[in-house]
Amino acid sequence: MKKNLYxxxxxxxxxxxxxxxxxxxxxxxxxxxxxxxxxxxxxALKNLLAGRSRSLITIGxxxxxxxxxxxxxxxxxxxxxxxxxxxxxxxxxxLADIQTSSTAVSLTKERLKEIEKIPAVEKVAAAVSLAGSLxxxxxxxxxxxxxxxxxxxxxxxxxxxxxxxxxxxxEEKYQGRSxxxxxxxxxxxxQTAGVFEGKEVVxxxxxxxxxKIAFRLSEEAYYPLRAAPTTTAKILGxxxxxxxxxxxxxxxWGGTYESVSTAGKFYQDKNGQWYGKWIKTxxxxxxxxxxxxxxxxxxxNGSQIKxxxxxxxxxxxxxxxxxxxxxxxxxxxxxxxxxxxxxLG
Length: 345
Known about the structure:
The chain has 3 domains: 2-50; 109-193, no CATH class; 207-326, no CATH class. Helices cover 38% and strands 24% of the residues. It is built from 8 helices and 13 strands. The longest helix has 36 residues, at 52-87.
């Protein structure tokens, strides 16, 4: 009985193996004289198992390389998503910024209406940008003042930290003649809007306040001292800046000049003439003997010459009264300390 069962199992196993071979031969057919895919797979598996260490190292290297490529691609696509969704707003590519020059304003309400009539243009928002000065306690800084409505703020993608945008009532409240509209009206007449517009006509070299000011120049920098407060005036010599030394002078009106602050183009009189702020001061002079090389300008006795001239307010730190008082107190304390050390010594 046991023998018959063994024979049955053996026959059944043989039939199953034969069926398996037929299925494999049917699936992995090969042309005559070529190895089937099944045999190739078996050979490859045996080779992998024969050199397990080498196989593991190879597979691990491929896995690590693939992971690095995936991480880099994910980082690149993530960065692209941040730029496109957060930095570049959905309608950024549909906006066009039109600015007027700093010397002649040609963008008027009529031209804004003409721009709005262009077929591809949907909306137009205007804004007025002015340079100003902000004073807070003892701090003073140059700022840009922007006059705009909700539509412009929407186009600019302004994100508020605190507060809220203008309400419809607040915009409707100022439909009358406002200072901003007066300013725009002046711009439409061809006038350039500046920091200060005055009715008085000033003269080149005229003192602004008549009071002496204390100022400081950038360290180890040389600035031209001119015979008159204009950029075309003769250069008397060069003055040296120092953080440790304060200079004194008087502010006067002069010609315009390029500057980061508003000092270079500060005041416009009723005739439309622009003026910049200069400093009339007396300082030791240096001669520029070569590019970047300055030597003291001396007289016949070998003493350094001091002359009165005009200095443009470029890289000039105007000191407040509080800063001057603090520095004087520090100097007094240092002198007392030095005197006490000399007595004890």
